[in-house]
């Protein structure tokens, strides 16, 4: 094996050995624009200082439906090849609210002269769980299951990941929260992500991407999308999520058909929108509607020559 193959094989072996069943974490359809939330090795991969914020509302019209909000900030210390960032996620479902804050660190190793780099990342995080039983109406008065107060339960954690990339592709794996905590309903999650950027001509680019995710007592879930970028200004495309076992989404294993669209407002600012609705899903018994919006700002210095701006990943 060459040096690159040995390093890749070692990392994949490590992650395969650590796989365990996991509880569902907050899930975002626009993960391809904010890898940092699930993989700390992404911090500094763009070489730009980057701010990202997104919000997701699921099961529209249902009281207590899931709402997830997230942000991330990343920066590369260029002379050190060291990435530094912070990220946070707030996940609200019914009476429960889970908040997570993290410091993300990464070192990027240059593997060849063609721009291939390997990032190794570490996520230092803390999480709190709030349970608001005042919004519940029990059938029986003084229900003991609602008497427990989980407010401000706190738990530190540690995660890690790898991120292999150049200007045309990326591939990574991560376990963002390694230590499990039953009191906070926190179990280990494992992610693999990948994507390529294909130039069709001077005006069109194609970007297929995939995410694989392992959750507790369920088979692997995969998410795939194909975005068409037009003149580096606008992109859109379909998205699809299902279990590996079932291939197609259905009312038992969930999943969805959806769509993504985005717009570069300037050389530094992008917005994106993801939609999953009844259209295309009703025949599979899936009737929920979800909306997700993302804003990304990339700070850059003036550069001479061709510049892909903003990046698609």
Task: Describe this protein's structure.
This protein has 313 residues and is mainly beta. The protein has a single domain (3-132, 153-299), classed as monomeric porin ompg (Porin). It has one helix and 15 strands. It has one helix spanning 3-17, and strands spanning 49-57, 67-77, 82-93, 96-110, 117-131, 153-165, 169-175, 190-196, 198-199, 204-214, 221-230, 234-243, 256-264, 269-276, 290-299. The longest helix is centred in the first third of the chain and has 15 residues, at 3-17.
CATH superfamily: monomeric porin ompg
CATH C-level:
Mainly Beta
Task: Return the CATH architecture.
Answer: Beta Barrel
> Rough shape?
globular
Structural class: mainly beta
Largest β sheet strand count, sense and barrel closure:
14 strands, antiparallel, barrel
- Helical run tally: 1
Radius of gyration using CA atoms only:
20 Å
Strand order of the largest sheet: 1-2-3-4-5-6-7-8-10-11-12-13-14-15
What CATH calls the topology is Porin
Q: What is the number of E strands?
A: 15
Mean pLDDT, all residues: 81
Helix content range of the residues, please?
Answer: under 10%
Cα end-to-end separation: 29 Å
Q: Could you provide a short overview of the structure?
A:
By secondary structure, the protein is mainly beta. The protein contains 1 helix and 15 strands, in the order αβββββββββββββββ. The relative contact order is 0.16.
